[in-house]
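We treat protein structure as text, and this decision shapes the records that our systems exchange. Because each token names a local backbone shape, the row as a whole describes the fold. An entry from our holdings is shown next, in its original layout:
>
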Amino acid sequence: MTVVPMRHAPILAVLAALTTGCGLSAELEREADPARTGAQARPQPSGTGPSSGARTRLPRDAVPRPSADAQHCPDTGVLVSTGTVNVAMGLRAMPVTLTNCSDRDHRLNGYPDVRVRDVDHEPMDVTVLKGPEPITQLDDPGPRPVTLRPGESARSVFVWRYSAVDAATQRGSGVYVEIAPTAGVDRQTVQPEGGLDVGDTGLLGTTAWQKAVDQGLSDRSRQG
């Protein structure tokens, strides 16, 4: 049996709850303990590396941060929010939640449409991928029809590899992230806590939208 280092356990618990499979938690475990020794990973030196600063403190939960428009429902009928950025060595993962705030059903089928901007709101040369590979081996449900009734939510997970960020200028950090349910729909701008340390020319992987796990379980219990 693999013993997960205690400082990585909150990541595994949070992200296992956000996905229907165990692919992400298993991948994060491999990142934390690639040799499967069960020993705690050696800490990174202080400075600008991936283990410095508040970003390295593992969260107890992943409560979504609402967009600036959270006080009202946009014309698109959905609200976008982001959870805490979770870290495991050089791998980053962030849950993104899309909530149907309208009074009618909202249909999804595929991947979010994403654009990353820097601290000056300038577009960054970040390649957004449909799927998590080659960044990591994470189970991706792939495009499939998802119907959200009013008040229901769907989730995607964004993944990337750490890239050095200038702490003084925030160069290399995706401070603002524009997210839409799909291409051709107006994006909403969110500001993830700490930003995305993806670098100026990094890769950003996404998983396809799937109904939030807790809601899927509730639906099945009602049907039973």
Observations:
- Helices lie at 9-18, 23-32, 213-223.
- The longest helix spans residues 213-223.
